Amino acid sequence: MLTHPPSFETRRGVTTVTRGRLQIIYDRRAVESRRWDVYFDGKLVAGQVTMDDAHWALLTSGVTTMPDAVDLLNAAMGCQNARRRLKRQSGGQ
Question: Is the pTM of this model over 0.85?
Answer without folding.
Answer: yes
